[in-house]
Automatic annotation (TrEMBL):
It comes from Vibrio barjaei. This is beta-N-acetylhexosaminidase. The lineage of its organism: Bacteria, Pseudomonadati, Pseudomonadota, Gammaproteobacteria, Vibrionales. Its EC number is 3.2.1.52. It holds the Pfam family Glyco_hydro_20b. Keywords: Glycosidase, Hydrolase. It catalyses: Hydrolysis of terminal non-reducing N-acetyl-D-hexosamine residues in N-acetyl-beta-D-hexosaminides. The keyword Coiled coil does not apply. Belongs to the glycosyl hydrolase 20 family. It comes from the Bacteria. Residues 635-656 are annotated as: Disordered. Residues 635-645 have a biased composition (Basic and acidic residues). Residues 134-253 form the Beta-hexosaminidase bacterial type N-terminal domain. Residues 257-602 form the Glycoside hydrolase family 20 catalytic domain.
């Protein structure tokens, strides 16, 4: 490559850091009128730039120093500062860069790892443990093992009492084939029996393995899925004999929380339908029952809305020649994609077969840049002179409650979304509405006056209440991030997802809202997993080691019989994907921390024990290996594979 940039932290300031950026021209040709484009997650203070000009839209920065050509075999140097916390991770550096020259040529620029000033390198010690006798995660409510094993062969069959549960039995058969290449024959022994047991609770199951075979008892499709997931984890495979061994046991199990979820952000990075299904299938193995799908954000609109095709024709794509600027990765090309309504139906059916409901998130009124840029005639308030900057550095990403177009947009999007997703919930976002929005919009100010509102939070609440009423009329309950109750306009039927702190969850529960816990400090899987600069991830909420993920105990400050606890529907983990651009990285960030969180979501608090979990995990990792999951090994700290960083994600070709 003919160009390279080096970025070094040169000074740590009381609030922020100062950087030196060197752009090298390693070629034999000088370039005049160049522009350097690079992806950088933090806001660069304009006034701090030593020379040249810099614009920043989200993470995309464009630097030019027109007075100085970039001479052959020479370099140019600039300094700038940020006002947020100092860098500790290499992932904080510049992610990608390219140069454009006056002839319009695009040249790739290689990026050296950032030189950090204060890198802490203290990998946490994970205790070495003896491999446990069984590898069940989450740990069942009660499990008794007896001596002896039952053998399953390719002549084994699964029988169901009731055809209603056939699809759970099919899942088990498919998984056995996928994992162990054992295809059951249509003529064989009836070794696994799904027995309907109406006395059990919906998600409860029993699993009995003895000389007579395997019996799973349950009363619902999801109960049979959980029984099947446990059975799979109990299997030991003898490849030579093509036989699966299952230890004799009696297991009786049911979940602690009714809501056990995982959120994936498909807006910042786009995952193919196959990638999403692969993850959902894995979630089923850990007895999760909810997939929260973050489908819209500033950097991409991913759900087809038939009445507003611009949302995906324009808003699903970013790049040098697109309406939306490139962000984060793949910045010198067209990147993106969307899920057609057919794709979504396919995902929903796939998830339902695995006992998982899919909840869509349409994030409003902030985080709406992709929608606004796709539908400016509908969503831009031409008289709004407000000046604001969102957390992710946009000044044009918020819907206006003062114009009709916003309400028409909401009607259409919520109607189509509600029709498409059978779950009785729609998540409406409501997070991170920037300070300063709507202040200089005559229509918003007039609306505030009409209703006697004194703050923008009330105006936000006004819009969210509209969305809530609309969703109610469509038979859906509204879910929102913790900011959804700001301005006190939405009803107590709204479910609050707390992400900033546990305290917020307690406050919301005290106010009478049902809550789902998703505190950034312990459940955000985009956080780095250890105190090492090379760990991929971010650290604004925390560094989340496996142990911290495991030890998270929802609302532990409250006594176990505090009635407020009844308001907790459950918990979920989340993967935001600004820096998660490919499948290996996805796996690396999710596994095995999700297993730790799944144990808390499902298992009894009294049975939680980190060493015992590690012992089971040690035995369990082979099951992840068998499926090609690129997990982070807690003992060897194995990184994602070398090539992962350089691998281009081909997903964006899916819809071209
Ligand atoms: C906060 S959590 C966000 C997301 C970012 C994430 C990055 C929440 C409701 N908003 O928009 O992707 O931090 O960690």
């Amino acid at each position: 490559m003919d160009f390279r940039i080096d970025l070094a932290v040169i000074e740590i300031l009381p609030k922020g850091s100062r950087f030196g950026l060197t752009l090298h021209n390693l070629s034999e040709k000088s370039v005049a009128n160049w522009q350097l484009n690079f992806a950088f997650d933090r806001h660069i203070e304009q006034a701090s730039l030593s020379h040249g000009t810099l614009t920043q839209v989200g993470s995309l920065c464009t630097l030019s120093i027109n007075s100085t050509p970039l001479y052959a075999n020479n370099h140019c140097y600039v300094e700038f500062a940020i006002a947020t916390s100092p860098f500790k991770l290499l992932s904080d550096g510049i992610k990608e860069a390219y140069l454009t020259t006056d002839s319009g040529t695009q040249c790739t620029v290689s990026v050296s790892p950032i030189v950090l000033k204060e890198a802490i390198d203290q990998p946490s010690e994970v205790p070495s443990v003896k491999t446990a006798r069984h590898k069940l995660i989450p740990e069942p409510m009660s499990a008794n093992f007896n001596s002896g094993v039952y053998e399953l062969t390719r002549y084994s069959q699964i029988t169901v009492d009731n055809t209603e549960f056939q699809s759970a039995a099919n899942w088990l058969a498919e998984e056995i084939t996928r994992l162990f290449s054992i295809e059951s024959k249509s003529i064989g022994q009836q070794d696994i029996h799904f027995r309907h047991s109406p006395v059990l609770d919906t998600e409860e199951y029993k699993l009995i393995v003895n000389d007579n075979g395997v019996v799973i008892e349950s009363t619902s499709q999801s109960g049979f899925i959980y029984g099947a997931a446990t059975l799979i984890q109990l299997m030991d495979f003898d490849a030579a004999r093509h036989t699966l061994y299952i230890p004799f046991c009696q297991i009786h199990d049911k979940p602690r929380f009714a809501y056990r979820g995982m959120m994936i952000d498909s807006a910042r990075s786009f995952q193919s339908v196959e990638d999403i299904k692969r993850l959902i299938n894995l979630f089923a193995h850990y007895k999760l029952n909810t997939f929260h799908w973050h489908l819209t954000d500033d950097e991409g609109w991913r759900v087809e809305i038939k009445a507003l095709p611009e949302l995906t024709e324009i808003g699903a794509w970013r790049g040098p020649n697109e309406t939306l600027e490139a962000q984060f990765h793949h910045i010198n090309q067209r990147y993106g994609g969307f899920y057609s309504q057919e794709d979504i139906k396919d995902v929903i059916a796939f998830a339902a077969q695995r006992g998982i409901q899919v909840i869509p998130e349409i994030d409003i009124p902030g985080h709406c840049r992709a929608a606004i840029k796709s539908l400016p005639h509908m969503l831009v308030d031409p008289d709004d002179r407000s000046i604001y900057r969102s957390v992710q550095h946009y000044n044009d990403n918020t819907l206006s409650p003062g114009i009709d177009g916003t309400y028409r947009f909401l009607d259409i999007v919520l109607e189509e979304t509600s029709e498409l997703f059978p779950a009785p919930y729609v998540h409406i976002g409501a997070d991170e509405v920037p300070v300063g929005v709507w202040e200089k919009s005559p229509s918003c100010q007039a609306l505030m006056e009409t209703h006697g509102y004194s703050s923008s939070k009330e105006l936000q609440g006004h819009l969210l209440r509209y969305a809530e009423d609309k969703l109610k009329s469509l038979g859906k309950r509204m879910l929102g991030w913790e900011e959804a109750h700001f301005g006190h306009k939405v009803s107590k039927d709204t479910v609050i997802y707390s992400w900033l702190s546990e305290e917020a969850a307690i406050n919301c529960a005290k106010l009478g809202y049902d809550v789902v816990l998703q505190p950034g400090q312990t459940t955000y899987l985009d956080m780095a997993q250890d105190h090492c600069p090379t760990e991929p991830g971010v650290d604004w909420a925390n560094v989340i080691t496996l142990e911290q993920a495991y030890l998270y105990e929802p609302l532990s400050e409250l006594s176990s019989n505090d009635p407020i606890k009844k308001r907790i529907l459950g918990m979920q983990a989340a993967l935001w994907t600004e820096i998660v651009s490919h499948q290996q990285r996805l796996d690396y960030m999710i596994f095995p921390r999700l297993l730790a969180l799944a144990e808390t979501a499902w298992g009894l608090e009294s049975r939680k024990n980190y060493s015992a979990f590690l012992a089971r995990l040690k035995a369990h990792l082979s099951l992840l290996q068998r499926q090609g999951v690129h997990y982070r090994d807690p003992w060897t700290h194995t990184e994602e594979p070398e090539n992962a960083h350089h691998q281009t994600n081909n997903n964006n070709n899916d819809k071209i």
